[in-house]
Amino acid sequence: MLRLLNLELQKLLLNRSSRVLIFISFVLPFFVILLSSLKINVFGLFTLELGELGVFNFPIIWHLTTFFASQFKFFFAIVVVSMIGNEYSNKTIKQNLIDGLSKKEFIMSKFYTIVFFSLISTVLIFFITLSIGLYYSSYTEASIIFTDISYIMAYFVKLVGFFSLCLFFGMLVKRSAFALAFLFILFIVEWILYAILSSNINSDMAERIQNFFPLKSMYKLIDQPFQRITMSKFPDKSAMTYDYAVHSYEIIIVLCWTALFVFLSYKLLKNRDL
């Protein structure tokens, strides 16, 4: 594993554009810290400081930071599809196989890289969240601090799943731009299917089925936190209640998609004439 990971890291770090994108991918999550210090001037009458409103209290901060940080995943998605596009355009994929790398090892080197960078990003978000929370939160008991730590696991699984999908699209079309376009097409297709289902069965059942779709299942790992924040400020608003928890079956769904995308990437490479 380490040999394959080291091989892939050398390719990425020798490429200037990949280095820049990787750097941006790791720097952007730190903008969550800026969010914590954001001050909003309301028509010159008073100033709202998010850090003083309690939105960074434990345990809700785990939900808030992982949701916002996951929005920056598209930058590393470019790196993932570029890993494949560059292999084909530079003919290095054929050279690697000639030098003794099996097709399975080639795919696994990409997957190990995805897991490696997802893990680094997850560790960064963990320490960023912990730091902001310890600074702003009114609750410092360990039992409260780590109540919603499951969002960190969900964040990691979400990144690995999404980047594995990018890997599959990169293998499918062999071009970075087209692979990213396929993500947008998949998003549209999922909503078209949802609309078709809604017109034939009740909307609740259609939404349950939609939650099994690749992109939607990844999104469902970390639902939007805004209603939860509002609920914490107005607990009597029962109409706003929704299920925002991280469920084990949601993680299993995304892990199944991840395994499928990696397997399909391997099958594409195995059956393709290079």
From TrEMBL:
Keywords per UniProt: Membrane, Transmembrane, Transmembrane helix
UniProt cross-references to Pfam families, sorted A to Z: ABC2_membrane_2
Name assigned to this protein: ABC transporter permease subunit
Molecular-function annotations in GO: ABC-type transporter activity
Transmembrane portions of the chain: 20-40, 60-84, 111-137, 149-170, 177-197, 251-269
Gene Ontology CC terms, in alphabetical order: plasma membrane
